[in-house]
Write a structure and sequence with these properties.
about 210 residues; eight-stranded mixed β-sheet; two-stranded antiparallel ribbon; 10 strands
């Protein structure tokens, strides 16, 4: 059983079918009343006290052969990208609240490199790195303000993050909700292919927040 620190990410995992004691251990690590996200093909039924908040199908995509931008694509002339870090957390959380790209916490940015696009000082789009496996790095938190979508900003950011991952000799991958057809079309156009289907389950640990 494993779980990131609650301030870093709510994602957890079990190496094998969990016992009741392991569910209790997961709840202790997450903290009373905290959210935990499990994903994969084997999703185990939690014991009494856990609440299922949301679940649904997802798709995992990999980008072994990213397509270069062409002069006809909206992101041919890239806007200025800025690195994001600790001093940008408030802006990142504000963008996440508006764009809802998925779980993102105060310290999620510590998992990898993040980049953003600002206009008039406001952070309007961002993307970064999250999970790391041997030879693979996940692209995550791809977020654009609703008012700034359809301008190719996400494509610019994903290409940039993917290029950094490739430069390290790894392959970029990402996970996306199956119903998010707009994002799937974008990632396909950038050169990602569907690797597998998976399932997301958002759970609420027993107890009240401390």
């Amino acid at each position: 059983m494993a779980l990131f620190g609650p301030a870093v990410s709510p994602f957890g995992a079990f190496e094998q079918p969990p016992t009741s004691a392991q569910w209790d251990e997961l709840a202790d690590i997450a903290g009373p009343g905290s959210d935990v996200v499990l994903m994969g093909n084997r999703l185990y039924r939690p014991p009494a006290g856990w609440n299922l908040l949301l679940e649904g199908p997802g798709i995992q995509m990999v980008g072994e052969r990213m397509k270069p931008p062409s002069d006809s694509t909206p992101d041919a002339v890239a806007p200025t990208l800025s690195p994001l870090g600790r001093d940008d957390v408030a802006d990142m959380l504000e963008l996440v609240a508006a764009a809802r790209p998925g779980p993102f916490r105060d310290r999620t940015h510590e998992l990898g490199r993040y980049a953003g696009i600002r206009e008039g000082g406001r952070l309007v789009a961002m993307a970064g790195e999250r999970l790391r496996l041997p030879g693979y790095t996940e692209i995550s938190a791809v977020a654009t303000l609703p008012s700034h979508r359809r301008r190719g900003l996400a494509a610019v950011l994903v290409r940039s993050i993917a290029a950094g991952i490739a430069a390290e000799g790894a392959v970029p991958f990402l996970n996306v909700a199956a119903q998010n057809e707009t994002a799937i079309r974008l990632y396909t156009a950038l050169g990602f292919r569907i690797r597998r289907e998976l399932h997301f389950r958002f759970l609420h640990a027993p107890g009240a927040p401390s």
